[in-house]
């Protein structure tokens, strides 16, 4: 996989933070966990339940050698989110996220969570969602 970085940009690879001083292309020739600086969520931006889940998975990706605490927090947060969610789309997405996290495919899990952000926004805005009560 080839990644192009701008001067001053950071990339997080297997827990290491790299910052480049000029425009550069990097080719990752083996299977590594990485996150581009633009995909990193700051703690202050984790303002909703789904964004908090993203932040937790991000921690797992950024520090793969010490995920015990983050994994426990993920399990609690994911279970709580599933327990209160009524949207079928959200529940299916959370199920897919859980499978990816279990397989330690954190980058793909983050992508899947980001894809659910509009669903969460609609739910929080009060849009009608599918629920067992509405189906009847």
From TrEMBL:
Keywords of the record: Bacterial flagellum biogenesis, Cell projection, Cilium, Flagellum, Repressor, RNA-binding
Record-level Gene Ontology MF annotations: mRNA 5'-UTR binding
Keyword Cytoplasm: no
GO term, biological process aspect, one: mRNA catabolic process
Pfam families: FlbT
InterPro entries registered for this protein in UniProt: Flagellum_FlbT
Source organism superkingdom: Bacteria
Function recorded in the entry: Has a post-transcriptional repressor function in flagellum biogenesis. Associates with the 5'-UTR of fljK mRNA and promotes its degradation.
HAMAP family: FlbT
Family assignment from sequence similarity: Belongs to the FlbT family.
Name under which the protein is recorded: Probable flagellum biosynthesis repressor protein FlbT
Organism (species): Bradyrhizobium shewense
Organism taxonomic ancestry: Bacteria, Pseudomonadati, Pseudomonadota, Alphaproteobacteria, Hyphomicrobiales
Gene (name only): flbT
């Amino acid at each position: 996989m080839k990644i192009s970085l701008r001067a001053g940009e950071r990339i997080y690879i297997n827990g290491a933070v790299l910052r480049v001083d000029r425009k550069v292309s990097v080719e990752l020739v083996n299977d590594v966990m990485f996150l581009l600086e633009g995909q990193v969520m700051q703690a202050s931006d984790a303002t909703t339940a789904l964004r908090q889940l993203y932040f937790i998975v991000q921690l797992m990706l950024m520090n793969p050698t010490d995920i015990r605490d983050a994994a426990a927090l993920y399990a609690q947060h994911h279970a709580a989110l599933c327990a209160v969610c009524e949207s079928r789309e959200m529940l299916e997405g959370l199920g897919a996220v859980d499978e990816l996290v279990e397989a330690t495919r954190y980058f793909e899990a983050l992508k899947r969570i980001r894809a659910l952000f509009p669903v969460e926004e609609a739910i929080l805005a009060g849009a009608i969602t599918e629920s067992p009560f509405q189906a009847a």
